[in-house]
Amino acid sequence: MIAEIGHFSLILAFVLAIIQGTLPLIGAGRRDKGRDNFGWTGLARPAAIGQFLFISMAFLSLTISFITSDFSLSVVVANSNSALPLLYKVSAVWGNHEGSMLLWVFILSLFGLCVVVFGKNLPLGLRARVLSIQGLISVGFLLFILFTSNPFLRLDPAPFDGRDLNPLLQDPGLAFHPPFLYLGYVGFSMAFSFAVAALIEGRVDPAWARWVRPWTLAAWCALTLGIGLGSWWAYYELGWGGFWFWDPVENASLIPWLAGTALLHSATVVEKRDAMKSWTVLLAILTFSLSLIGTFLVRSGVLTSVHSFATDPTRGVFILALLIVTIGGSLILFAWRAPALKPGGMFAPVSREGFLLLNNLLLSCAAGTVLIGTLYPLFLDAVGGDKVSVGPPFFNATFLPIAVPLVLAMVIGPLLSWKRGDLRQALRRLSVVAVLTLTCVAAILFYDRGGQPLAALGIGMAAWLFFGTATELVQRLRIGRIPAIESWRRAAHQPRAYYGMVLAHAGLAVVIAGITGGSMWRSEHIQAQHIGETVEVAGYNFTLTTVEAETGPNYTMDTARIEVSKKGRNITTLSPEKRIYDVSAMPTTEAAIHSSLKGDLYVALGDQQIFDTGEEAWTTRIWFNPLVPWIWAGVLIMVLGGLVSLADRRHRIGAPRRATERTAERTAVRR
């Protein structure tokens, strides 16, 4: 009965999505004066609320089915088991194709509800159009779920037990990674809806940018955290000792993140200077379009990955059609309506606007480079060409030349004035930063004896960005040039969005340093290690003391005990595991990691080996990954920066209405 309630709720949500996507849009076009729940325009609010309630009911029904192990449902049989721990029964809800798409539309409806709750100050017509666009997106995805990916299909007869969740997904990191990733993907639909609504209305102004920024910031924070969680999971769960592999599925999330970052900066120019309007609208469309492309790559079965669930070609064709309609339709609308947008303020190339535009272009080029590298093998295979693999050498060779000028511009831009800036003056203000950066580069070259020029470049980029951001903050607060109490007062009056920018840029500097250390200076040792044998890696001694068989909730495992010491001083004891899951008989590696500011001591346990002499040994893989913890710390700092910026009074959802709209509404009420 619970499954039937969920299925029926999806059908009702689909009906409400049709109403939400059509009638308010027509009412806004007719300039319907209905307010709240009255008139066609006013239908957007109750329809969005109703759609959220029904989709929530469907999502709750599927969750209950997984928790209670209802093996009469096909999706539960394929992705759960009675012995599965409760956390993974819940995460199994979105650990499959059908459930993940239901999570997608649930988050989409949640954002629609947020517009209703927090967007009360939006002009009635704009709010109706935004909710209508959201409704039309829901129509497409609910159609996809109901006709190709129904999570409530019954089996008759029902099996006694399920086939279990993919063991690689039975991990806390994968329990939280997809929801945050989807909050980012789907969150960019709000910027898309505002952009399309603005094109229909024919008006983009600073008030519009102020409404768009909070939604974009929220999506950017969620996507940043989602990417970080996914990278962290791959680092410790797969047992490869790496944090990023330029996997097509990883790229599918990085591409919209780069575009979304460009959108955030571009919206700032519209808000501050009423410039770059068309470019900002186009970025809003492209960012969500790239999120849809990522959904297509993962959900269509085109890619083979632990993240990809769909193998039915019908699903791929449906998503491709939806992608063509959404992206093609919005770009056609942009080509038709964008020329009508009034141009904004002019600015010189050397200005804060100019460097923000440069920032946008470089981020867009980076996103395009990753997109081409990801799609090229698929395109070549589709036209019958040879199978090729585009891996780290390509991305490192093409991404790094774009990243270097991007980081340089990130430091110089904030020191320039709006409209027209003085580049020489800005560079003079960065003289101390340049000295500190060159000192760091020289120190790295000396430490490496000139063997790792890319390491020096990476640390130099991190130092330039970190010290440059700190210098701009010091100069803005005039620390050391005025009394401390005055600097404190200046600090108290700075907008939170500014501190958010400082934290985000500083966090990125920390990430760059972590990536450099983990990529350039890592030490790896693979060997067959006997009990009691000691292996030295990067000055640390790793002694294998025992390997014991143990039992988990739904798996058996071999757990090693490895004592780590350095110069006779005990550092830690690491306990890597080799698991075999009961149902699937699939082996997984659970790495043991000891983290410090210097880096990670990382150990993975492999298979047991028995030699002809009767001696036993275990394959162990030992890494020392310098500075890798800085990556996760930097990601958290960046997310914190986004949240601080989101808390700025000017960027809250309840942004002020346009003055002309308020005047018109007051006049209508008086009449």
Folded structure, characterized:
The model is unreliable at 306-310 and 659-671 (pLDDT under 50). This protein has two domains: 2-241 and 258-401 and 637-666, no CATH class; 523-626, Tick-borne Encephalitis virus Glycoprotein, domain 1 (Sandwich). Strands 2, 3, 4, 5, 6 and 7 form a six-stranded antiparallel β-sheet that branches. By secondary structure, it is of the alpha+beta class. The radius of gyration is 27 Å and the shape is globular. It has 21 helices and ten strands.
In short:
62% of the residues lie in helices and 11% in strands.
Looking at this protein, list some descriptive labels.
single chain, 671 residues, alpha+beta, Tick-borne Encephalitis virus Glycoprotein, domain 1, 2 domains, six-stranded antiparallel sheet, four-stranded antiparallel sheet, 21 helices, 10 strands, globular, disordered C terminus
Q: Which stretches of 5+ consecutive residues score pLDDT under 50?
A: 306-310, 659-671
Whole-number average pLDDT?
A: 88
Task: Give the C-alpha Rg.
Answer: 27 Å
Class based on secondary structure composition and strand pairing? alpha+beta
Q: Strand count, sense and closure of the main sheet?
A: 6 strands, antiparallel
Q: Estimate what percentage of residues fall within beta strands.
A: 5-15%
* Total number of helices: 21
CA-to-CA gap between the ends? 53 Å
How many DSSP E strands?
Answer: 10
